Each structure stands twice: as C-alpha cells, then as structure tokens.
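Internal ticket - ligand job 405, zinc ion:
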Amino acid sequence: MARIIVGFEGSCPQSEQGVRQEGENRFRIFPSWRPSPGISEEAVGHSTRLGLKLVNESQADETLALLIDWQCDEAPPDMPRGFSPSTYMSYRDFVVVREPGHEAWRTVMGDVEGSVAEFELNIPPGETEVHWHPPYTYTQSEAFVDSLRAHPLVQVEQIGKSEEGRNLPLLTITDSGKREKTRVLIVSRYHAYESASSYAIEGMVQWLLSEDPWAIAALRCYVFYIVPMANPDGVVNGMGRLTAPQGADLIMSSTAQDRAHRVLWEMVDRVKPQLCIGLHNWQNKHSDGLLGLEPHLRNRFLKFMPDQVEFGKQWHIREPRPISSTRPQRELMGEYCRREFGAQGVGLEFPWFGRTPDDVRETGRKTIWALFRALDEPSPGAWLYDPPEKFTLSSYWEMGGDGTG
Ligand SMILES: [Zn+2]
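stdout (structure tokens):
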C-alpha cells in the first residue's frame, strides 16, 4: 500500500491535515489547506500550489488514485483576477511527476469534475514526487547563489533576512568599467508558487555571464541588480502568492507587515533602478505576459522575441497604466519605480504547461537578450548617422522614446 508524505520543503499542503485517505491507494489532497485562515491565493479554493511525495515501500508497482480537491466551490466569491471556477480548473487538469532515479518531470493528465482533478498514477517502488508545476526550492536558489560567489563579475550581497530568518541575497553583475552605467533591477519569485520565474532568472544570469558578445557589451553599459528569490518564506512553506497565510504581497508597495518586504523595498530605494523587470508565472496554459512595457520598446522587443509558438504560447500584452504624480496608497513595484525614478517597468509571465525547466531557462536567456536588443538598437538606419553608444536606455527616454529625437 502506498502512503503520502507532506511537510517537506515546498510541499503543499504542508500538513497531513490537508490529506485524507479514502481507501486503499486512494487519497484526497487539499492544496488550499493552510495552518491558519488565508487571504488572496492562500484563501480556501484559491490555491496556486501543490506538492507531495508518494511512497511505495513494496517491491512492485502500485496503482493509486489521487484526487486533488482544489475546493473552488468553497471559495469566497471573489475569484482572483476575474477567474471563474471552470477557468481555474481548466488550468488544473494536469500534474507533473518525477519518479525515483529520474531527473525529468513527466506530465500526467487527469479528469476534472467540479473542483476535483482525479489522476490515476502507476508508481514504482520508492519515492515519487508530484507537483502542479516543476518546483524550484529555496535550497536550489541558495545553491545557485553559492555557485556565483567566486565569479569575478558577480558581487553577492546579503541585503537582509526574511521574516522567518532566511537569506535575501542581491546579486550585482557588471564589468569593471568605470563609466556611468544604467541601473537595471530584476526581481524573481515575488510570488511563492511562480517557480518558472526562478528558472527564467537562472537563464538570464547565465546569459549575462556568457561569452555572447551582446552580453559582454551589456555589462559595459548596464549594472544588473538581481533578487533571485524575493519570497523564500512563502516558497518553503507552500504558499501560493504571499509570504504567509495572511502575509505580504511583495510586489505591492503597501501590504501586510513583513521583514522581506521591508528589506526588498529599502533596496529599491537605494538602487533607484532605471529599468525594473519583474518575473512571474501565470497559471494559464497559452499566454505569456508582457506587461507594462512602453509601446515603442515593446514593438522592438517583439521583433526579437515573437510569440513562443514552439511552446504553444502567444504574448498577452498589457499597456502601462498612467502614473499619478502623487504616491498612491498601493502600487506595483514597477509603477513605483516609474513614478519615483522615471524608470521603465516590465512584468513578464511565463506559464509552465508545454515547457520543461530547461525550456524556461532558455526563455529567460532569450527574453533578456531581446529586451536589450530592443533597448540598444537605434531606429532603422539611425546607427548610420549616430554612433550606437549614443542610444543608451536613458537617451531613449530623453528623446521621447522613439530614438529619433
Ligand atoms: Zn506573480
């Protein structure tokens, strides 16, 4: 007979109270179980997280029924961002499974009825891990940061600790040139479940440190401030979006009291970024998100990074919102940087379905390459008359954005 393990790093639910055995090899899982009542994506029926282990201690394969009860029929009436329960469940008809001795995640499709997605799994002896999306843990992030400590182009700074005492490192990446450089902030994993953003930031950092001439050129003109995991507490404790069941939404200027939030936003005020890039991971299957980028830059970006049709994705574009001159009670970090520092802001969303972790790393590499092509490339033919160095990020803005003065 198989059994279920939860309560490990990044599992969801975090407690056996979120697991119910309904028969031999038949288990019902409640991904929106939280240790205390939650709000936002931690509320009942709003969860965006799932992770557990199946243990088969026998010598032969076992067949097992897994009923993932997302409880959206019990959700408070305000589904986030206009989701209907049927839309919410249409993104939950699959899980990814990693069998013992395997590196890769295999997708298994299930049958959805109401709030429940049911999966029949054949599990070999040993420990099989099941998630909604391929996970990326705090331990993985720490190992990634450690792998960069000795790199001559990377400075690792501990900017503070999270509410529960986990590390909040900031990577600074640039070359040793003394010229004045444009400041770029990239923040990943504001939101706990968004593991694709972690693979994307790995791809971006790998590109910045690569031998690609465009990357070498970028480090001459820009200094990159990178937060690889803004929300370690939420990541470890199986949250969806926030740092705790009623915790902080780190991307918002005003939110619940939380140490990671204070540390992150103090860093932003110190860095004063001129470009603010936020990495996210929508739940849907078909749309990558390109949010808040000014149209002139966006059009150029899309030339270099069109729809990723190879993964079944099309860009969903959201215009930048007008910025008020006075500080509103609550705003997104990108909007705060636009208003306070005259920055450009962009949010990128990379949903999983149809992508492997390596695909998402590659998507990260391609995105940062395309973004900096969009920023560097003068308008058609202009480089014939003006040296390309003139066309830095700040000169674009000074010239009203289209590079033609
Ligand atoms: Zn997000």
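Auto-summary: The CA atoms of residues 216 and 230 lie 27 Å apart. Confidence is low (pLDDT under 50) at residues 379-405.
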